[in-house]
């Protein structure tokens, strides 16, 4: 019995995960010293960007009602900028899930994007959940409200709507600009307008969480507008991104696997990844090189073409032989 009690005591004495036992708004432990969370957020917002994470929020995505295209757009966006997108998660409109995911990703990655859950209805809880995650108050952002009044038009179903008269519809619209607010940070560091034609702000929380709408047209437009702010913080400030080389091979993956193992051993020490992608019911598979060392990658082209009995292509499938199956 005493052994079990000692075992229980040791278990209870173990530290909880950081998001559970540390006040996310006020303090963090760095090298044994307590540091104000707002200062950490300000510092985080200026760091170089190497890695990214994405959180897609919405019951409609998990329920199959809506197809998520935003994560695919973000993946291409990050690739074009040379940012290593490390994780994409899809979660529901659940405060606990949003709190846990945003705390963890903010801690693990340099650039975090959320998509969805910032509309006018009761189930749009992203702002309030992320505010809760970092113990921040919510505040009506007056400049965003002024932009909303200037740039948005009432829906045809609301012919009597007025901006200067209280109404349930007005309160619903305001939900979209009641944002997490850290009084110790400059407003321009936590509310970003990137498109003069849009009233929709990008709310930035904890220095690296960027809260975007789930509507693909807005998501894409806002991300494109954010690019100039990100470029100075990239390891490749010119935004040339990562280099990708594609090869088309008639060989089955099982046939080409031994050669690719040898190729990876040569390429990966140079920071170049070797990939192999089967193409179901197509005559040719795809082999890729992805990295930044363009000269080294180009030098491998003749060897790889010989090794995979194929050739370099510009786009996947450009040399398909119609009607010919293959063994993956």
From TrEMBL:
Gene3D superfamilies the record matches: MoaB/Mog-like domain
Domain of life: Eukaryota
CDD domains: cinA
InterPro entries attached to this UniProt entry: FLAD1_M, MoaB/Mog-like_dom_sf, MoaB/Mog_dom
Residue ranges with Acidic residues bias: 316-328
GO molecular function annotation: FAD diphosphatase activity
Region (Disordered): 307-328
GO biological process: flavin-containing compound metabolic process
Residue intervals of the MoaB/Mog domain: 53-233
PANTHER family tied to this protein: MOLYBDOPTERIN BINDING DOMAIN PROTEIN (AFU_ORTHOLOGUE AFUA_5G11210)
UniProt-recorded name of the protein: Molybdopterin binding protein
Organism: Viridothelium virens (Speckled blister lichen)
